[in-house]
Amino acid sequence: MPNLILLSLLAAFPPLSTDMYLPAIPTLQALWGVSFATVNLSLVLFMATFSVFLLIHGPLSDRFGRRPVLMVGIFLFIAGTSLCAASQSIAMLLAGRCVQAAGAAAASSLALALSKDLYSGQERQKILAYIGVIMAFAPMLAPTIGGLMLKFASWRLIFVSQSCLALVGLYGVYKLKEPVTRFTSGGFLAVAGRYLTVARNLPFMVLSLGFALMVLPHFAFIGGSTDIYMNRFGLSEDVFGYYFGFNALGFMLGSLACTRLAGVYKPLHMLYFTIGTFFLGGVLMLVLGGDTPYTVAAAMICITFSVGFSRPISNSMILDQVDTDVGAASGILTFEIFMIAAVAMQLISLDWADKPMLIGMGAMISALVPLAALQLVKKRCRF
For a pLDDT cut of 70, what percent of the chain falls above it? Predict the structure, then answer.
């Protein structure tokens, strides 16, 4: 399996695990007689568990290699997905989602580490952008496919199909040549010490946390999209999938633009541009969003375009700040992103009067933080 396809599939584990399942949330509310916030815990707990295990898989892959950690992670993902498919209660589903998240964390974290192992410089930026383009098809198609499964089959089939995709990823990892040639040593304390080493790297820590905050409105929208589009505007499962796919189209266009412009313009200048576009999306959400599904989608496409455009550049720049402990650094970077995602999903699930306005305010704040982070460490960074 070509490396680009494998990396894209591994990186797509989290969106496949969440977006395909989104149209089923109202169905499960009615099936088990629970609130939206309770069912939404299946997203929040997934993200929280996922974030914690990112910190485990990263240094383990530095110690034992990428392939064995990935294979164990994918087996965990398949086990958790099977438990979700067989769930008879919300408690059983939540347990399955936690196991699923523990496995997905290996795929997501090590996809980033493998990009550092296999590529460098502008080539890595372009590869990460191409992965972003391919990944965008997952959130574009996943809710539509999930909606069709609900219409013609069962919500359980959503999780069965995720297991099938995981088997394809498992085959790709089995065929992968182990890229790590120098392994770290020691036990648990030594592994934990790798994080202390990375944490002392001020440019890495400031930039990783600053740019991680840019995902806050993106994941708030994912967590609140069913409530906004289906409960507030009364859209059906399949129509919801089209609107959600339009939102994901912004992410794909941003990543595609990055593939064309990487190497043409300076990374720092491109980041300034995308931060400005991101802030504009927040302003548009405050001015236009909330009245119709069209205005929400129009503002969100600016936000997701900016996330898709900036992520390959910022991730590559952040990884350039480290020379060793790449697995631990990738774990920290991805942990910060998805822990913020978990907070955003929990926050949006509360009973807000105007959720689009909350997303818009979050986007404006989230644009200023990475801008400040760049100014703080710009003189100490490798660009």
Answer: 90
User: Domain tally for the chain?
Assistant: 1
Q: Does 153 reside within a domain?
A: yes
Opening angle at CA 105, ends 103 and 110, nearest 5: 110
Q: Which domain holds residue 224?
A: 3-378
Q: Spell out a b/e string for 77-113, using b for 16 or more CB atoms within 10 Å of the CB, else e.
A: bbbbbbbbbebeebeebbbbbbbbbbbbbbbbbbbbb
CA distance readout (Å), 205 to 317, 333, 370, 381: 12, 8, 12, 11
Contact present, 299 and 289 (Cβ < 8 Å):
yes
Gap between the Cα atoms of 125 and 135, Å rounded = 15
How many angstroms separate the most distant Cα atoms in the chain?
A: 57
Mean pLDDT for the stretch of residues 356-377: 90
Contacts 24+ apart (CB under 8 A), 113-119: 113/58, 113/61, 113/66, 113/326, 113/327, 113/330, 114/3, 114/7, 114/10, 114/66, 114/179, 115/7, 115/319, 116/319, 116/326, 116/330, 117/66, 117/179, 117/180, 117/326, 118/3, 118/179
Residue 192 pLDDT > 80: no
| Number of neighbouring beta carbons within 10 Å of residue 152 | 8
Whether the pLDDT of residue 114 is over 90: the answer is: no
Residue 213 CB contacts under 8 Å (≥ 6 apart), including other chains = 340, 366, 369, 370
The answer to which of 62-76, 287-301, 315-329 has the lowest mean pLDDT is 315-329
Within a domain: residue 327? yes
- Whole-angstrom Cα Rg for the chain: 20
Q: What is the CATH number of the domain that holds 39?
A: 1.20.1250.20
Q: Is the pTM of this model over 0.85?
A: no
* DSSP 8-class letter at 88: S
Answer yes or no: is 21 within a domain: yes
Tell me whether residue 383 is in a domain. Answer: no
